[in-house]
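Weekly structure sync, notes
Attendees: PL (lead), two postdocs, one rotation student
Agenda item 3: pending single-chain targets
PL asked that the sequence for the first pending target be pasted directly into the notes so everyone works from the same version. It is reproduced below exactly as submitted, 188 residues in total.
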Amino acid sequence: MRVDQQKIEQAVRMILEAVGENPDREGLIGTPARVARMYEELFQGMDEDPRKHFDVVFSEEHEELVLVKDIPFFSLCEHHLVPFYGHAHVAYIPRSGRVTGLSKLARAVETVARRPQLQERITSTIAESIMEKLDPYGVMVVVDAEHMCMTMRGIKKPGAKTVTTAVRGRMAEESDIRFEVLKLIKMQ
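Predicted structure, written out during the meeting:
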């Protein structure tokens, strides 16, 4: 899907008029086009399948925990179209020597976040994609984020963080593994 920039430009112009602004004044003349280009960039993940990042696997006899933590991301809340941003922490235990490139975990986070989203959906989609494509013993995804819809409007509580988890396989069944992942995430 290609973003319809012309439609976005028209909509932004209408929004500016609706809030009492003059879209033809000097500072706003290029704003509709800039917003359209921005949305095209922000929504790059719309037609991308995060599972594709796990098509390439490597044979490595490693069946211990793999964790990539502090993966920065940003997304737009699908309820208000304002940003939320934070970090994803992705852990899995490879099975049968099937490991993926570490950057692929970050790429999957990026793909899932680049669409109108809910934090809960980001968390579970990443976990499900890894389970489906890599068939690991277990997966744990932890996402912590600040939501501008809670900071800028409504309750107005800057700094409040939302934490979501998705735990699958052995990590769901064995609390000691979950504890180890959480401990490693907290390490500096």
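Discussion points:
- Residues 119-134 form the longest helix (16 residues).
- Helices lie at 5-18, 31-42, 102-113, 119-134, 148-151, 170-173, 175-186.
Action: rotation student to compare against the earlier draft before next sync.
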